[in-house]
From TrEMBL:
Membrane topology of this protein: Multi-pass membrane protein
Localisation: Cell membrane; Membrane
Keywords: Antibiotic resistance, Cell membrane, Membrane, Transmembrane, Transmembrane helix, Transport
Membrane-spanning intervals of the chain: 29-51, 63-85, 106-134, 140-167, 174-194, 231-252
All copies of domain ABC transmembrane type-2, residue ranges: 30-255
Protein family: Belongs to the ABC-2 integral membrane protein family.
InterPro entries (UniProt xref): ABC2_TM, ABC2_TM_bact-type, ABC_2_transport, Nod_factor_ABC_transporter
Principal subcellular localization: membrane
Name of the protein this chain belongs to: Transport permease protein
Length: 257
C-alpha cells in the first residue's frame, strides 16, 4: 500500500508550479504592463477628471484610492482564468499529470503567482496614490489588517478565476471574466457614496462582496471605525474561496479524464 504524501510532498510541486507561472508572467510583458498601468490610469482619470465634481466629504483621492486598490486586485486576479485556460488548451496538463503532479498543485501555482503579481501592482498603485495626494493615517496594526484583508481577497478571487479558466473552453472566453470583475467595483462604494446612487441599486451595492472590502480598507487606512465590515469581507472571501476550491477540483477532474 502506497503512503499518502506528506506536507512536503504536496508543497514541493506547488512551489515548482508557482515558479513556472512567475517565469511565464515575466515573459508576458504586455499583460504585466496592462495589469499595472490600467489601475493607475483609472486613478488619475477619477481623481483629476471627476474628482472635482464628486463630493465625498473628504479629499477625493483619499476616498477613491481604496477602491482603486480593489479594482487593481480584481483585474489582476481575473487574468488567472486566461492562464489556466491556456494550460488546458495547450496540452501541458497531460505532461504534468504524467509526472504525477496533481491538479491542486497546478492550480495553486497559478493562484500564488497571481497573488505575487498583484502585490507588485498594488504597491505601484499605492505609490502613485501617495504621489498625487493620498494620505493614509493608519497605524502599523491598521496597515497589517488592511493588507491581510486584501490578501485574502486576492487569493479567493484568484481561485475563482482558476475555476473559470477550467470552465471556459477557450482563453478568449476566459478573458470575458476580466470585464465582469472590472465592472463589479463600480456598483459599490468604490467611487461614490452608495446613498448617491438610484434607490433601486442600493440593495445590490450594499450586499455584494466588494463593498465591505472597500469600506474595510478605507476605514483601516484612515484610522476610522470599521464596524463589522472586515468580518463581512472575510466571510464573503471565505465563501468564495471554499466554493472556488471545491468547484475547481471537480472541473479539473472532469476536464482531464
Amino acid at each position: 500500500m502506497s503512503e499518502s504524501p506528506g506536507v512536503a510532498g504536496l508543497l514541493a510541486p506547488a512551489l515548482t508550479m508557482t515558479g513556472r507561472c512567475v517565469r511565464l508572467s515575466r515573459r508576458d510583458i504586455d499583460a504585466v504592463i496592462t495589469s499595472m498601468m490600467l489601475p493607475v490610469m483609472l486613478m488619475l482619470v477619477f481623481v483629476y477628471f471627476f474628482g472635482g465634481a464628486i463630493n465625498t466629504g473628504t479629499e477625493y483621492v483619499n476616498y477613491v484610492a481604496p477602491g482603486i486598490l480593489v479594482l487593481c486586485a480584481a483585474f489582476g486576479s481575473s487574468g488567472t482564468a486566461v492562464r489556466v485556460s491556456e494550460d488546458m488548451k495547450g496540452g501541458i496538463i497531460d505532461r504534468f499529470r504524467s509526472l504525477d503532479v496533481g491538479g491542486t498543485s497546478i492550480l495553486a501555482g497559478h493562484v500564488v503567482a497571481s497573488t505575487v503579481r498583484n502585490l507588485f501592482s498594488t504597491a505601484l498603485v499605492l505609490g502613485v496614490g501617495v504621489l498625487i495626494g493620498f494620505r493614509p493615517s493608519a497605524s502599523a496594526a491598521g496597515w497589517l489588517a488592511a493588507g491581510g484583508v486584501l490578501m485574502v481577497f486576492l487569493v479567493a478571487l484568484s481561485w475563482l478565476s482558476a475555476a473559470v479558466g477550467l470552465l471556459a473552453k477557450t482563453p478568449e472566453a476566459a478573458a470575458g471574466f476580466t470585464f465582469f470583475m472590472m465592472f463589479l467595483p463600480y456598483p459599490s462604494s468604490a467611487f461614490v457614496p452608495i446613498e448617491t446612487m438610484p434607490g433601486w441599486l442600493h440593495g445590490f451595492a450594499d450586499h455584494q462582496p466588494v463593498t465591505p472590502l472597500i469600506e474595510s480598507l478605507r476605514g483601516l487606512l484612515h484610522a476610522q471605525p470599521v464596524g463589522s465590515a472586515p468580518w463581512l469581507a472575510l466571510a464573503w472571501c471565505g465563501g468564495i474561496l471554499t466554493v472556488a476550491v471545491g468547484v475547481s477540483g471537480v472541473l479539473f477532474r472532469v476536464r482531464t479524464r
